[in-house]
Amino acid sequence: MQGWYHSWIAALRIARRDAWRAKGRSSLVLAMLALPIVGVSAADLTLRSAELSPEQTLTRMIGAADARVSHSYMSGPINQNPDGTRSAPVGGYKDYDPSKSPREKPEPVESLLPAGTQVIKDSSGYTKVRTTHGLLDAQLRELDTHSPLVKGMITLNRGRLPEAPGEVIATQAFLKDSGYFVGSSVTPRGATSPYKIVGAYELPDELARPELIAPPGTLIAPLNKALVASGGRALSPDEKYLVKVGGAGVTWDAVKAANAKGLVVISRAVILDPPADSEIPLYRDEPKAMYERDRNKTIETAILATVVGLAMLEICLLAGPAFAVGARRSRRQLGLVGANGGDRRHIRSIVLSGGLVLGAVAAVLGSVVGVLLTVVLRPVLEDTLGNRFGGFDFRPLELAGIALLAVVTGLLAAIVPAVNASRQTVLASLTGRRGIRRANRVLPVIGLIAVAAGAAIALYGTTSKLGSTVVAGGSALAELGIVALTPVLVGLFGRIGRWLPLSPRLALRDAVRNRGRTAPAVAAVLAAVAGTVAVATYQQSSDVQLRHEYQAELPHGTGLLEATENSAYKEVPALREALSKDLPLAQRADVDRLVVGKPSCESFSSDPGCGRAEIITPKDQRCPLYEDAKGSAAFSDAQRKELRQDWRCQEPRHGTQHSVVVGDEKVLSVLAVTDPGSVAALKAGQAVSFDKRQIKDGKLTLRIITEQGEDDIMRGRYDETPGEDKVLTVHQAPDSTESWGLDLILPPAAAKGIGLVTAPVGSYFSLDGTPATEQRQRIAGEIDRMGVDASLRIEAGYQGDNSLVMLALAVFAGLVTIGAAGIATGLAQADAEADLKTLAAVGAAPRVRRTLSGFQCGVVALMGVVLGSAAGILPAVGLRLTQQREADALYRESIEQGYSAITEAVPFVPISVPWETLGGLIVVVPLGAALLAALVTRSSGALARRAAG
């Protein structure tokens, strides 16, 4: 035992001395081993620090209150889970009718709470705020920030808290996005007076949220009053209540009592001490599994283990040749150890100690650097994650386990060089002879079995329920098999050497003769390129599929400019003028919308004074699937399948915000509707319909709905909806006409003739050529300066662009390839020094040394890229076949159950090989590696006597 200890101590000292002497090689290995440790340790510390304790989470959510209470907006009592994130009606959703939910404002929460309860109201609502750049979506909030219950919910960074009406505080995100600062005045859209920003704060859990906070009753209520007075739509604030009851806090019994009144409660006492599952009524109505997250932990763990394993393999393959270089250059030293009584075990321990020393140093450096980076970059990481850390959460065991990976990887990388070095005879080591070693006959057999088994598993995965997980596992096994076959495959490459010129022939034969150093480098390139090719092939195939499935929203080269909010109707004429001024228009077709009630009402608003116009489909022409109160569930699979083929149940391919518009024949021209009858009808003042289901005997019914009831069209009950019917004589466009989402075009005269009011909404337009980037930026800037919330769409076809992804993958594979090939070239130069001396002695030109070095690097890179390209196709093909099977199964099931029509497109899941990326990898990367190696190699070396033998 003592002898074993002293021998390893001596081996570690020798390894430490050798590592210090060969600083360049040691630095390279340290970088390869330490970089993953830096990343993983930093990620571990970051994620652990970002995970808050229950107490910290509660403080950020409810401050110092005992609970937060809010309305469920459901009719009747509810059940909830302990943390209040899930709730459902008593009895579950199966028999719940959402149409019976109360439409009126619920009873104030204060009246539902026990007497003596301290309550703070927290009201919030989203709206647009005018900024230095235009309009910004922001949350307006009313909260008493001076109350002790709010402590911990917000963090004041500078300035002071708001005290008087007209004062607000703004989040840092709001100030950054708006261009304002503390002391600026800000005006929500529709407000009659500005508000002064007196402080800047942040929400620890939502750093990126733009928000303004004002004292209670000073922001949302005055804004709503101004909006109503101007005919706008008032905000519907979301109201929550912070509650303090004292004593033991809000218990689970108190939570259930509040649930009986339709309230949802987030209780500090319940979250910190949750009840047993048997005491939770929600889990009796709905299975707990429905509310659980992370149910695929086993699969995720398996995927993570596979990724870590492959990453360790890649590092071993890259670092292994570096240890082989060290062993080769130290062979005389190792020979002296053998000459002085050391056996093979001692030789192995010296080489393994090199991996142990560098692995340990990499572990320490990687962990320290990872932790320091996390500490230094904490603000950047918090901004990226969007929330503040609760504090640094160091997990020594986890960090030690991560660091141990570097040590294990270093040892694994040194195993093969250690075994090879121990097999050298003492005489061969002292004289510098390379010796002859027979090729391993077992490893290729294992590799061949692994390739066959991996391919079979991947093929099985295309039919398995686990699908992509099995395919990934099989592909990883097949790739390991190819790695094991690399020495044999390198030997096969050597057969083409007879047809090559001198330098590449020498480089190829040298690589084949010395497979011990060539194979790991080739395998490292193979693994990196295989992953790149797999991802690139999958990405390219997905891009082809998306291009095939893409549906244009408008005819190519046309566009639509429209106000996305009805309240902006007064600004639409200015938008139209900006459109004509800034873009090269061939034709512009202005369209209006029908108005029922106030012009500022949103299309489907149920606010007082708001209504809408709805086309009433004749009863015998409605799809039966939607007529029954239970929907399609009231029909059998066979009935649904049959009805899906019925013309009444054929749904249009496109949709638009306003399916009924008021316009003239220019709309048809822009939308490329060439039917002469439709054009003539609009010119004659007759409406044109594009949906034959809505017309009967040439008539169409337009119902003017001024007040929504419980039995409303939007809830699927056509006949009971109250309203005034306007019957129009319309022209029916041919079935083959593509309307691009429009159901009805009303000429202005026809709309006016039946007493309908209209308001501007936007313009369809066709372009005279493709607009330049400057022109699009100009119109976008004009819209922004107007402060109007408008959308501008120009149909330019499928615009998917994965070139950046492809480039990043190619660069990654290229860097790994050049690195691995460079390591192999360095080892080849160490081995071939005697050959180079011989070439110099017989009169070879100095450039032969540089040329030979370049070809040695290029040969390794080329072999690895070719093999990796072939190996990377398998996982991509397997994943695409899996997706094809899943899509086909879903398509067939959807047809059989009557949820899709047979006329719908058959799933298209292509397999497309990225030939450009492969060409770049196979040609450019090896050529670049060869040129780089040739450039950094000295063209002359000292002429010396070659060792005998």
Task: Give keywords.
949 residues, globular, six-stranded mixed beta sheet, six-stranded mixed beta barrel, alpha+beta
Overall description:
This protein is of the alpha+beta class and 949 residues long. 49% of the residues lie in helices and 14% in strands. The chain contains 28 helices and 22 strands. The chain has a 6-stranded mixed β-barrel. Strand 4 (118-130) and strand 5 form a beta hairpin. The two termini are 40 Å apart. 39% of the residues are buried.
Q: How large is the radius of gyration?
A: 37 Å
Q: Helical region count? A: 28
**What helical percentage do the residues reach?**
40-55%
The stretches of 5 or more residues where confidence is low (pLDDT under 50) are: 942-949
Strand order of the largest sheet: 4-5-10-7-9-8
Summarize the structure.
With 949 residues, this protein is α+β, with helices and mostly antiparallel strands.
Write the layout of secondary structure elements.
Blueprint lengths: L1 H20 L1 H28 L3 H9 L4 E5 L6 E3 L6 E3 L28 E13 L4 E8 L12 E5 L7 E5 H7 L6 E4 L6 E8 L8 E4 L5 H10 L8 E7 L7 H8 L3 E5 H5 L9 H4 L11 H33 L1 H9 L4 H33 L1 H8 L10 H27 L3 H6 L10 H20 L6 H26 L8 H12 L1 H35 L8 E6 L8 H11 L2 E11 L16 E5 L20 H8 L15 E3 L2 H6 L5 H8 L3 E3 L9 E7 L18 E9 L11 E3 L1 H6 L3 E11 L5 H14 L3 E5 L8 H29 L1 H9 L5 H50 L18 H22 L13
Helix pairs in contact: 1-11, 2-9, 2-11, 2-13, 9-13, 9-16, 9-18, 9-25, 11-13, 15-16, 15-27, 16-17, 16-18, 16-27, 17-27, 18-25, 18-27, 19-24, 25-27, 25-28, 27-28
